Amino acid sequence: MLGLMQNQPLMISSLIEHANRHHGEGEIVSRRVEGDIHRCTYKDIAARSRQVAHAMDGLKLAFGDRVATLAWNGYRHLELYFGVSGTGRVLHTLNPRLHPDQIAWIANHAQDQVLCFDMTFLPIIKAIHGKATTIRHFIALCDADKLPSDTGIAGLTSYEAWIAPHPATYAWPEFDENTASSMCYTSGTTGNPKAALYSHRSTILHAFAGSMPDALNMSARDSVLPVVPMFHVNAWGLPYAAAMTGAKLVFPGPAMDGKSIFELIEGEKVSFAAGVPTVWQMMLAHMQAGKLRFSTLRRTVIGGSACPPAMITAFNDDYGVEVLHAWGMTEMSPVGTVCTLKNKHLALSPDDKMKVRLKQGRGLYGVDMKIVDPDGRELPWDGKSFGDLLVKGPWIISDYFNSEAGSPLVDGWFPTGDVATIDSDGYMQITDRSKDVIKSGGEWISSIDVENIAVAHPAVAMAACIGIRHPKWDERPIIAVVKKPGAEVTREDLLAFYEGKIAKWQVPDDVVFVDAIPLGGTGKMQKTKLREILKDYVLPGA
User: Fold this and answer.
1) Is 177 considered catalytic here?
2) Which of 130, 156, 274, 424 has the greatest count of CB atoms below 10 A from its CB?
3) In whole angstroms, what is the distance from residue 334 CA to residue 115 CA?
4) Is 331 a catalytic residue?
5) Which DSSP helix (H) or strand (E) runs through 302?
6) Which of 236, 359, 439, 475 is catalytic?
7) Which member of 186, 337, 416, 421 is catalytic?
8) Over the stretch 4-17, which tens digit does the pLDDT of each residue have?
9) Nearest to 496 by CA among 524, 457, 535, 526
10) CA angle in degrees (0–180, nearest 5) for 143-254-218
11) Any catalytic annotation for residue 266?
């Protein structure tokens, strides 16, 4: 027997229409590329999102066509979040921190048809527009009078001129809620980046779960600052959750320094902020130097990489701000766990509370977790046994977009590549990573990419890239190199060899010359042994 409830598909367009109807006066504040502060409301965003929808239709895009963005956090980017997905097209947020060649490869793999970009990234657009062969339309997120005439990009259009002729009314289509809504590529895998393809259903369910009190606890009474970029797993889903709850949104644009972030928090009475640890390190340093205090900030979610204990202590004890330690992946939309305390933890000593807060937290409803040994046997939740972490749920991928490798799932579970423990209360803690990718400032660096460039040097016989702990960036890559017999190459020569081949922040911090790199029985490099050999190594300037 089936239930007698209405079968209404979960549509992303319904989020902005809900915000328009019930929170129309809610503010969206953006620091623009031009440097000024722009203010509008959910009612404005809804109207302009409908104009975007008309403009999308005017480009004769097919249902499911990909529309890429290369943009900061701001109101125009938010309009694209709803205007693109709401019409049945797929929003594809590109990461401007990647090398232009990587961006072009990703755009071609996704078969992007349109690219909307902030003017900050015009040099990247110039570098890729001849290489990203599927893109037919380039749209600059600016006013018509801000569009330069000498870009060399044929048919370049300003966003405002593009949407201006269209009405602010639009009949959003209804379709299967499992239809693709957006996509994000992750470099947190070996080889080429892979794409997670989200659906309308998965996005709405993720927003529901993320808004819950024991998750991010978002409401119409919040002023939310997503410092995490909108090109980084859809800003952890915060734009969708904000529209669902009616929370005020404050966008930092390109100004990500500690001073600018602090001023925005104070000026816009931000109560909740989200970002990776490096952002908060810069802001705390600015505050400590000026003996500044928060007047409205009450909590911050920190993810992307492990949060140092000193940062949790500084926020909690010095400034009265609750830190929500969180964990997830691009493949998980991304939030999987949030570390909120249970009632029984409230009476614990500060040291014992810290032991809990350092964990990545409990799974949201909808995220199942387990840890297994190398033979796939499930391990107990005792806080001591550690094993490979696997997850499953309605907003976790079943396969990568356009993948030739087949589904990554193991008996219906997604292997995260992390090694973790889970205690009897369900609190998960990452202890290591089974993959050799490196996470620097919340961004992934593929060790294979770094190694491939090194071994392309004529003097290098073998190279292995590993991550070294760093006080600011969490990890930084170094490259261990075996020189070819009779060949000579200096540290400076090899680091210079990386120029123009990968993004600057992906270039190793140092070169360590070794006589040999440990190999296993199958000829694979044993990086665990290499790390042991280099256990006393200290990064220059760290």
Assistant:
1) no
2) 274
3) 24
4) yes
5) strand 299-302
6) 439
7) 186
8) 999 999 999 999 99
9) 457
10) 100
11) no
Nearest residue to 92 via CA among 72, 110, 118, 74:
110
Q: Measured at the alpha carbon of residue 320, what is the angle toward residues 317 and 321, in degrees to the nearest 5?
A: 110
Domains of the chain listed by start with CATH number: 15-25+41-199 (3.40.50.12780), 328-433 (2.30.38.10), 438-533 (3.30.300.30)
More confident residue, 277 or 264: 264
Considering the candidates 444, 451, 473, 475, report the single residue annotated as catalytic.
444
Query: What is the distance, to the nearest Å, from the Cα of residue 520 to the centroid of all Cα atoms in its chain?
Result: 34
Is residue 473 flagged as an active site residue? no
Q: Categorize the per-residue pLDDT at 198 as very low, low, confident or very high, splitting at 50, 70 and 90.
A: very high
Burial class (CB in 10 A: 0-12, 13-18, 19+), 388: buried
d(CA 443, CA 97): 9
Output the DSSP codes for 305-372: SPPPHHHHHIIIIIH--EEEEEEE-GGGSSEEEEE---GGGTTS-HHHHHHHHTS-EEEPTT-EEEEE
Cβ atoms 378, 371 nearer than 8 A: yes
Nearest to 34 by CA among 155, 160, 157: 160
Band (pLDDT 50/70/90 cuts) for residue 435 is low
In this predicted model, which residue has the larger pLDDT, 443 or 497?
A: 497
